[in-house]
Amino acid sequence: MMEGDDHDDGLVGATSSASSSNVQRAVQYWLDKSTIHIVPRWIVFVMLLAVLALRIYLVQGYFIIAYGLGIFLLNNFIAFLSPLEDPSESGPSLPTTDREGKEFRPFARRLPEFKFWLACARGTMIAIIMTFFAFFDVPVFWPILLMYFGVLFCMTMKRQLLHMWKHKYIPISFGKTKHKNAGVEHGQFGGGAAGNKGR
């Protein structure tokens, strides 16, 4: 009788692990499909933030969760703005002269855009779930938290902007510059065999 119970437990464990791996595979499939849809992804994130803000406003509590989420989002934003290799630690890896700057090198982030979005969306969903548990509602005076977060945000962004200014990098890359008439020949025959069409 004991052997049959062990067999049933093993069967239940195998079934639950198979179903959880199927769920993980489905979630990963939809995440992979969403990588090219940048604007809709960020709209979903803003909607999640709006749901959290509405929940906190209606309950008039869980301000410490909002503060913790704000610190988490600020930390991810700084990682998103930072280069993959810090120029102050690894030496001058970014172009320092005009000649070095002619070669196109896109800005390599420490935290890529998709991972930034995914971390922000997951953090916001976890914060929304936490607002349904009363033991996370720690009584705090929210104006002090808001003021402290504002000061922290200003100081952190000032430090990041000074770092960007010192090492001369911009965390936005629009791709390689395209010249107006690139690839168009203005010769006697209009470029290649194009001038031979009428002959």
From TrEMBL:
Q: Does the keyword Transmembrane apply?
A: yes
UniProt keyword annotations, A-Z: Membrane, Transmembrane, Transmembrane helix
Topology with respect to the bilayer: Multi-pass membrane protein
Q: Where are the transmembrane segments?
A: 38-58, 64-84, 140-157
> InterPro entries, alphabetically?
Rer1 (IPR004932)
Which cellular components does GO assign to this protein? endoplasmic reticulum; Golgi membrane
This chain's function reads: Involved in the retrieval of endoplasmic reticulum membrane proteins from the early Golgi compartment.
Official protein name in the record: Protein RER1
- Please give the organism: Eucampia antarctica
